[in-house]
Amino acid sequence: MTTSVFSLPVDPEAQLWPLWRRAEHSILAAIEAGRVGAGDQLPPEHQLADELGTHRHTVRRAVETLVGRGVLEIRRGRGTYVARGPISYRIGRQSRFTQNMAAAGCRTGVRILRSATVPADAETARWLQIDTGAPMVTLALLRTGDDVPIVVARHSMPVDRFADFAERFAEIRSITRTFASYNVVGYTRKATRISARLPTPQEAGDLAISASAPVLVWVSVNVDTDGRPINLDASTFAASRVDIVFDNEEQ
Amino acid sequence: MTTSVFSLPVDPEAQLWPLWRRAEHSILAAIEAGRVGAGDQLPPEHQLADELGTHRHTVRRAVETLVGRGVLEIRRGRGTYVARGPISYRIGRQSRFTQNMAAAGCRTGVRILRSATVPADAETARWLQIDTGAPMVTLALLRTGDDVPIVVARHSMPVDRFADFAERFAEIRSITRTFASYNVVGYTRKATRISARLPTPQEAGDLAISASAPVLVWVSVNVDTDGRPINLDASTFAASRVDIVFDNEEQ
DNA sequence: CGTTATTTGTTCGTATGTATC
DNA sequence: TGATACATACGAACAAATAAC
Fold first, then answer.
1. Rounded CA gap, B160 and A236, in Å?
2. Alpha helices in chain A, H assignment, sequence order
3. What is the Rg, in whole angstroms, of the alpha carbon atoms belonging to chain A?
4. Residues of chain A with C-beta less than 8 angstroms from the C-beta of B188
5. A115-145 pLDDT, tens per residue?
6. In this structure, are residues A163 and A195 in contact, taking their beta carbons and an 8 Å threshold?
7. pLDDT tens track for B33-89
8. Is residue B176 predicted with pLDDT exceeding 60?
9. Cβ distance B245 to B89 under 8 Å?
């Protein structure tokens, strides 16, 4: 007699949940019991459906939810895998991306996705203390850790102070040092807004995450030492790949 | 001739996206163009499917994603509605839930979901600086704004200092004042960890959100004025209903 | 370099369950 | 109670990405 790795719960209480929730629970139980380990490949969907005595769509719903919970990871055409945990992304008042990833032992990369000069919408203008419609330099960056996309950062700066910011950044490849090239040194984060949602199609594509994997959205205003806003940073993190840690003591 | 409120994009570039993404885009476009406003009810799924010339399942996928993006809201048996925006939840070093919601003009409510004394797991013990397995008082609270569930807060406290915390809270109905009853006044938040994911079945039930609507998870350690950890607060927010704002200046 | 098998992704079909009014 | 609207579940077929040959 063989003991199956995946099987639906049989206790009558579980019958209250829909089938796809019970399938979700079965897969999670197999992982938590160590019957499948981090990085392991799951059986293909049709086989999982057979083992659980249910339909492939039901399994897909369960798997999709576990992807969104950060438990599984799907690679199309290859298979479904048990996810490795997120990287802790430590935030003080001045800490920046590269230091963080280095601390986690990750090789960082950055790529310019898009760059343009556009008129400021009302809300951005308010944060940057410029006029609505005033031109802004915008720069969308994809930052990676060990070649895995981590965050899309969209930076907006007033064009009057930072006209050729994008060109300089393309050369310098560091936000902090590009600001330094304008003699802006030691800027700090003022207000920060954090929210979470499912990704837009573009975000899902940029971050290479599935449509059901949430993003963590981080919008912060940076001010120079005179307190003047220099930049609005709207960053969208692949939530399953990071953990944001504020350490109030180290600020 | 009638102009339809919902219609699939026809430009050839759009053909690259799957049908459900195009349907998602159509619904979003109708909202952004003001053809349907905040709080309005959408046509039923079968009718939307007809208008978009596609299958009901395709529409459901689109709607589900927009629910996760905070754009729509589903009320089972009643209909699908355009969501109203999130409440801004302002966080300083000491600010607490009730003040925040009052500032947003919301009537707050709190209900005890679960309460128990349990042994500390390794990680919680480390945060609270107690021994692994040492007993903790745990208290799960559901906080509401205008009767809408906002957050499930799970508090853990060492039992040796706060033995009858749950009973006192049931009477006092305020975390701050319950701590004050132990002569713990003016405690502050030390480290905070923020992440986002899809809800567990229990969280989805507690918060009355759909399985595809992300939660924002907030874990913080509070310390008394001597720097001793008094409590671990693991709070799960319905992401579509709040925005968390850190104001570094007001801390 | 194409071909094929494997695996996940999309789409439509059909039926039934369940909450709300 | 009946009508309406969302939720679950199984079925069938094909598309698209990947890997192995």
1. 42
2. 19-32, 45-52, 56-68, 97-103, 122-128, 165-172, 175-180, 201-207
3. 22
4. 248
5. 999 999 998 999 999 999 999 999 999 998 8
6. no
7. 999 999 999 999 999 999 999 999 999 999 999 999 999 999 999 999 999 988 877
8. yes
9. yes
Question: What is the CA angle B200-B146-B205, rounded to 5?
Answer: 15
Distance B77 CA to D4 C1' (A): 8
A87: β partners: A242
**Looking at the DSSP assignment, which residues form a beta bridge with residue A156?**
A138, A232
Query: Smallest Cβ distance to B197: which of A201, A239, A245?
Result: A239
For residue B24, give the 3-state DSSP assignment: helix
Please indicate, yes or no, whether residues A136 and A222 belong to a single structural domain of this protein: yes
| Of residues B129, B131, B133, the one with CA closest to residue B119 | B133
Among B65, B222, B218, B249, smallest CA distance to B150 is for: B218
Report the predicted TM-score, pTM, of the whole model to 2 decimal places: 0.92
Same domain, B54 and B91: no
Q: Of A55-69, A168-182, B35-49, B101-115, where does mean pLDDT reach its minimum?
A: B101-115
Query: How many Å does it take to go from CA B77 to C1' C20?
Result: 5
- How distant, in Å, are the alpha carbons of A6, A104, A124, B72, B93 from that of A50? 10, 40, 52, 35, 52
Chain B residues touching residue A249 (CB < 8 angstroms): 190-191
Residue A23's domain comprises 14-82
User: In this structure, what CATH number is given to the domain that contains residue B213?
Assistant: 3.40.1410.10
